[in-house]
Amino acid sequence: MDSLVLTNRQLAMALKARRKSLGLTQVEAASRVGLLPKTVSAMESRPERASVESLFKYLSALDMEIYLHRKEETPNAGDGEW
User: Fold this and answer.
1) SS3 sequence, the chain?
2) Any idea where the domains of the chain sit in the sequence?
3) What b-and-e string marks burial along 29-64, b requiring 16 or more CB atoms within 10 Å of the CB?
4) What's the rounded Cα separation, in Å, for the pair 54 and 59?
5) What is the pTM of this model?
6) CATH assignment, 8-64
């Protein structure tokens, strides 16, 4: 599953969708990598408040990774959330 994530909300939705596609509860996903269920819940609702370390742990639980690349020039590129 590839997802272009441009906003906090999109990140939250992508994480939750992936967890559900794996058939995991928040508790099960959290226990895979030593996170608290409340941390997983927070990442699926307010990911901007998560630590980078917690985000990478959660991505590992979901068998996901981050891929960074140069942003393509588009009109209104400065209008994004970040």
Assistant:
1) CCCCCCCHHHHHHHHHHHHHHCCCCHHHHHHHHCCCHHHHHHHCCCHHHCCHHHHHHHHHHCCCCCCCCCCCCCCCHHHCCC
2) 8-64
3) bbebbebeeebbebbbeebeebeeebbebbbebbeb
4) 9
5) 0.83
6) 1.10.260.40
Q: Report pLDDT for 79.
A: 59
Judge whether residue 48 has pLDDT over 80: yes
Question: Is residue 54 scored above 90 in pLDDT?
Answer: yes
- Answer with the residue of higher pLDDT: 75 or 43: 43
Least confident residue range of 20-34, 41-55, 62-76? 62-76
The Cα–Cα gap between 12 and 7 comes to 9
Q: Which amino acid is at 24?
A: L
